[in-house]
Every structure is written in structure tokens, then in C-alpha cells.
Design goal:
- The complex is a heterodimer of chains A (230) and B (112).
- With 230 residues, chain A is α/β, with parallel strands linked by helices.
- Chain A is flat and about 55 Å long.
- The longest helix of chain A has 19 residues, at 3-21.
- In chain A, 45% of the residues lie in helices and 20% in strands.
- Chain A has one domain (3-206): ABC-type transport auxiliary lipoprotein component (Rossmann fold), CATH 3.40.50.10610.
- Chain B has a single domain (21-111), classed as Serine Threonine Protein Phosphatase 5, Tetratricopeptide repeat.
- Chain B contains 6 helices and no strands.
- In chain B, helix 3 runs antiparallel to helix 4 and helix 4 runs antiparallel to helix 5.
- Classes of the chains: A alpha/beta (230), B mainly alpha (112).
- The A-B interface holds A 1, 3, 6, 9-10, 13-14, 17, 20-21, 38-39, 53, 56-57, 59-61, 63-64, 67-68, 70-78, 81-82, 106-107, 109, 185-186, 190, 209-212 and B 2-3, 6, 9-10, 13-14, 16-17, 19-23, 25, 28-30, 32-33, 35-37, 64-67, 69-70, 72-74, 76-77, 91, 95, 97-101, 105.
Chain lengths: 230, 112
């Protein structure tokens, strides 16, 4: 690596990282900023794929992502159990309930709807590749869409190379076999959720328990005067 | 040496943008997934969550949002409403946002 290449790498890494930490110039999140939800009700995930474990694996990995964003996240299994008790056993039925009714039932500021559009595992000789398509929609108690995103992810279980070709082949074959028996669900959904909630392309604002909540909204008030007025 | 500096610089910059965890979630994600798909694991999952919550209490750390209520619901689904109510009260005490929902659950359970 020569000196110029290193300088270039540093400049690129700086600009990429800086953009990851900066606030957007156009307030595409005006509704979110005005609504400033404190709590998020994550309702059961609609699954349009044929994979029966897909929806619970997405559901299990959502609370942590959003709790760490600084929101109060309603307990997903308690919510799921309560809805089932009310006769709403099919997630699609839950998604069809008007947001005003759902939020009133739990006194939630916002509702997160997630739909799995596809979940396809491709088994090849030495490795398994899983391709997923998830849709995320955060809606205010009054039904206003505050934020939405779509994640297409192609996932292969990670393996660390042992350095020998023969050893690597054995590791790959073993991983492929494990994935076939019980696909690597949680690392995949964790990755997908992380890509959605922690990126610079479509930033998800921090909630009231986040350490940067106050500074975030101060910056919003400076960058977009009037956007926080009711 | 130069390569080392570049790597160190990268690591430093990356750590600057990573948010430190607000809570300790224990094995919540893995255990909840197991709870759904391995019915034989239910007892272990409940036990593990209770242990985690006890650890949070003894170290004075605030449990992650929802975890106390989840423990309550695990007990409720096992038929132990009394322990469930106890956990729902704890969730409500720590998280104001949960109070209306917890009150509904507690009222319904105590009415029966």
C-alpha cells in the first residue's frame, strides 16, 4: 500500500463516518419530529413467506433494537398473548385494526408494523444463502406514518477462515448442514433490523431514554425552525 | 507501522459512532425465540429470565423495557396469576409508559 492509497482510504473513511453521524439537510422526518413518540407498540409480524419461523425470529429481535434507541418498547410476547386472548390470533388481523383503536388499547404513542415479504434460502453445495425482504412502518397513534423502510438482505452464515483450503471446505460443509436443519434465524433478523434502525440513509431518531435525545432535538430545532411547533 | 496506524484510526473513529448499550438484555432474544419453537425449553427460559432480573436488581441496574412484564406473562401462561401480577406491578413502577396496560392486566386478573 503506498502513501497516496492510505491518504485516500483515510479521507473516504472520514467522509463516510461523518455522514453517518450528521443530521439530514431536508427534514424528511417532519412528522416524526413533531410527534416525538415515547413508546412503541411492536405488533405481531405478518409473514408472507412459507417459512414458519420467520415472523417470531423478527419479533424476538425487534425490542432490543428499539429499546436501545431510547424508546419504551411494549413487551412483545405480552402484547401478542393479549391480542390472541382478544381473538386476534392472525397478525394480518392485527395489522387491519385501525391504529387509533390499537394505540388506545395499550396507550401507545406509536405502532411498528413489520411485514416479511419473502424469505428464501438457497442451498448450494458448500454454503447456504438466505435472501429476505422486510417492510417496516412506524405509525403514530392517530394513523400518521412517521417512518418507513424496506430491507432486502442477502445473508450467509459467517465463518472465519482456518487458513487451509481443506479445513475451510469442511467448515463450510458443516455450516451448510447446520443451516439446513435449523437456519441461522436470529443473526439474520438481527442484521436486518440493525441495518434498518442504525443507518445514515434513513435515520431513526433517538427516543427519550437515549443519551443523545436532547441534543438531537436541539439540532432539529436549529436545522428546521418551526418543525417542532404544534 | 503505517498499516497499524490506519487500523487504529479506523477503530477509533468507529467506536466514536457506536452507541453504548443502555440496558443489559440477558438472553432475551434467543430465549424468546426458543420459547416459541421449543416447548420443552419453557421452564428453562422462565428461570433464566427471572435470574437475569434478580441480577439486575442486585446490581442496581434498571431492567430493559418490557422484561419484567414478559416474566409476568410467562407465569400467567403457566397458570400462576399471583406471580404475574407481582411482575406487572414492578414493570409499572419502573416504566410509566406501561402503567395503563399493566393496570388493565392487574385489574382483570384480580377481578377473577
Amino acid at each position: 500500500m503506498n502513501y497516496r492509497a492510505i491518504t485516500l482510504a483515510i479521507v473516504i473513511s472520514f467522509s463516510v463516518l461523518a455522514s453517518g453521524c450528521a443530521v439530514n439537510q431536508v427534514d424528511t422526518l417532519a412528522d416524526f419530529h413533531q410527534s416525538r413518540p415515547k413508546s412503541i407498540l411492536i405488533v405481531p409480524v405478518v409473514n408472507k413467506s412459507t417459512d414458519v419461523m420467520a415472523s417470531t425470529s423478527v419479533l424476538s429481535t425487534l425490542p432490543r433494537q428499539l429499546g436501545e434507541k431510547g424508546y419504551y418498547v411494549f413487551p412483545v410476547n405480552t402484547v401478542k398473548s393479549l391480542l390472541e386472548f382478544e381473538g386476534l390470533t392472525d397478525p394480518q388481523e392485527v395489522h387491519n385494526v385501525p391504529p387509533t383503536e390499537l394505540s388506545a388499547l395499550f396507550h401507545a404513542d406509536s405502532i411498528l408494523y413489520v411485514t416479511i415479504h419473502s424469505w428464501t434460502s438457497v442451498y448450494v453445495v458448500l454454503a447456504t444463502n438466505t435472501i429476505v425482504d422486510f417492510e417496516y412502518r412506524l405509525v403514530a397513534a392517530d394513523g400518521t406514518v412517521l417512518w418507513s423502510d424496506r430491507e432486502n438482505l442477502s445473508y450467509s452464515p459467517q465463518s472465519s477462515s482456518g487458513g487451509s483450503l481443506f479445513g475451510d471446505l469442511i467448515v463450510m460443509a458443516l455450516e451448510s448442514a447446520i443451516e439446513r436443519a435449523s437456519p441461522n434465524y436470529l443473526p439474520l433478523t438481527r442484521q436486518a433490523n440493525q441495518n434498518v434502525f442504525w443507518n445514515s440513509r434513513q435515520p431513526f431518531p433517538p427516543g427519550p431514554y437515549a443519551l443523545d435525545y436532547t441534543t438531537y432535538y436541539q439540532a432539529v430545532a436549529v436545522d428546521y425552525p418551526g418543525s417542532l411547533e404544534q | 507501522m503505517r498499516q497499524f496506524l490506519v487500523i487504529a484510526l479506523f477503530a477509533g473513529l468507529l467506536s466514536g459512532c457506536v452507541t453504548q448499550g443502555l440496558y443489559d438484555w440477558g438472553d432475551y432474544e434467543e430465549d424468546l425465540f426458543d420459547y416459541y419453537h421449543q416447548p420443552g425449553d419453557k421452564e428453562r427460559v422462565i428461570e433464566n429470565l427471572v435470574k437475569h432480573l434478580e441480577r439486575m436488581e442486585s446490581t442496581g441496574r434498571k431492567p430493559a423495557p418490557g422484561l419484567l412484564a414478559e416474566a409476568g406473562t410467562f407465569y400467567l401462561l403457566e397458570g400462576d396469576a399471583e406471580t404475574a401480577v407481582d411482575f406487572y406491578r414492578q414493570e409499572a413502577a419502573i416504566w410509566p409508559e406501561s402503567r395503563p396496560m399493566m393496570a388493565t392486566l392487574i385489574n382483570n386478573l384480580e377481578a377473577n
